[in-house]
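Q: I have 358 residues here and want to know how they pack in 3D. Can you give me a structure?
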Amino acid sequence: MPPGGKRVEIPVANFAPRNILVTGGAGFIGANFVRHVLARDAAARIVNLDALTYAGSLDKLEGLADPARHTFVQGDICDRALVDRLLREHAIDTVVHFAAESHVDRSISGPGEFVRTNVIGTFTLLEAVRDYWIREQGLSGEALAAARRFHHISTDEVFGTLGDADPAFRETTAYAPNSPYSASKASSDHFVRAYHHTYGLPVTATNCSNNYGPRQHPEKLIPTIIRCCVEGKPIPVYGDGRNIRDWLYVDDHCDAIWRVLEAGKVGETYNVGGDNERRNIEIVETLCRLMDQRRPARAPHRQLVSFVTDRPGHDWRYAVDIGYIGKELGWRPASRFEDALAITVDWYLADPRRLGLG
């Protein structure tokens, strides 16, 4: 149960993932999803494919609920021969595709790797499952939809940016990516959709808002703020800090993905958000207050804030309308932001290596 919340009644499931290939399962959201599934479904088995680049770490997979049902494979989603082998050796019936380059600043300085991983990698996976499920196993139509699933994780950044008074992104919002990262994810989304409409591949997809929680890479906003507070160094805040994001606790996100796998309509996309819009400066100030309580310094940590030049193409506001997934699948976030953020801070402070220190 996520901190401070309770689940709502949800429809009966109609799909039961059993042999699951999770790509990027040693990354932030992927590793939390692996933990979520192993703790939730005693019949599910996971093959975890991760290249262990800078964002992936086996440390994120320590202490799994049932490690015997988890097989880790280090490898690249662009390696077609490896993907083919894993699908057949483990009789994969479900693919949950997290693997992606996701840091906007890195996409600005080196967009090529984002095209390779996010576009070519997704294409490679789609071709592999098409060959295995449709061509080799001969599944099609209702039989294919009942027995197999390819779930694609995407981002709200593909929709571009919003003004303060604009309505939140919906599943029908036109794509308008503004960074190489979001453009690469938009491209991958379109390939997933095309493989459903062209080849009948049983796909579902989710576009999520900003995730936070334990096991996030130290370069991301929240762990960066915590690290700066620990070290007493300036906390960099882009522009005036008034950019707005919708913050989603990672456990809630994992719960939503599982719910879509169980009962989502084949071919559908669902927006997943925290229903929790905050300005960046609000996040900074809340974290500083939490750090004042846990690691008191000579002066309030808020005095460490240092406003820096905004990055190119910085979107002003993201907001996600979660009405559709709520109506169709009975899902909504169960965590209270302040409770979940405190849990996140305590997780990082428990071991300085989690912040890239020590």
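Q: Anything worth noting?
A: The radius of gyration is 20 Å. The chain has eleven helices and twelve strands.
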